[in-house]
Automatic annotation (TrEMBL):
Belongs to the thioredoxin family. DsbA subfamily. This is Thioredoxin domain-containing protein. PROSITE patterns: THIOREDOXIN_2 (PS51352). GO terms for molecular function: oxidoreductase activity. It comes from the Bacteria. It comes from Candidatus Niyogibacteria bacterium CG10_big_fil_rev_8_21_14_0_10_42_19. Keywords: Disulfide bond, Membrane, Oxidoreductase, Redox-active center, Signal, Transmembrane, Transmembrane helix. The chain crosses the membrane at residues 36-57. Residues 1-21 are annotated as: Disordered. Residues 45-241 form the Thioredoxin domain. InterPro entries: Thioredoxin-like_fold (IPR012336), Thioredoxin-like_sf (IPR036249), Thioredoxin_domain (IPR013766).
Amino acid sequence: MAEEENLTKKEKRELRRQERNVESDRRQKMRVYKRVMVWAVAVFVVAGSIFGIFWLLGSPGGERVFVGAVLQDDQIKGNSDAGTTIIEYSDFQCQACAAYYPIIKRLAEEYGDSAIFVYRHFPLRQIHPNAELAAQASESAARQGKFWEMHDMLFENQQIWSNQRNPEETFIGYASAIGLDVEKFKSDLASEEVENKVDRDYNSAISAGINATPTFIFNGEKIQTPRTYEQFRTLIEQSVGSDR
């Protein structure tokens, strides 16, 4: 301020003008910076939202895989003539599969007229020692027309049998509970035909590069697994709607 006192009035006015210009430039730069930041955040949010939708619902352009056509001895629910097909590769001892069980069951009930739901076995033998026998138990029940009853029983009681050293007697008890001919069930459980059916499903998963459960094949594409019923329902609704 001491130096300013020695300036003439004209010089002081010029100094004030320069200070105002500097302040004006600073404010203008701040406004531009803020606008750039707002747009950057907006672009980030939109991009993140789009990515999130595709991640949660599964990209429509997902990885196409060949897992074989739906066969007569596949375990299916729904309309076999429908244009929407959901193939689930699952493991009865898998906790994540058990978590998806009520979701898929509800979807099959809701969209049974307009979609086909296929269950295929992919027992993770190295980490789930009882999964293969559970798969064979369900296929043995299928030979008496009660695959889905055994399927439900296995998932709903997973915590009981999954840690048993040998759950065969438990599975025989389930067979009795759902009204099967127990002797026939025991015979089928030990049969090569049932073992081969589970192996066929397993090998089709390996050939398709599947390495985790549950894995869902939606109209021929391996999708990012939806996390909730609502997300799965949206995916199905989009497919069913396009068929109408």
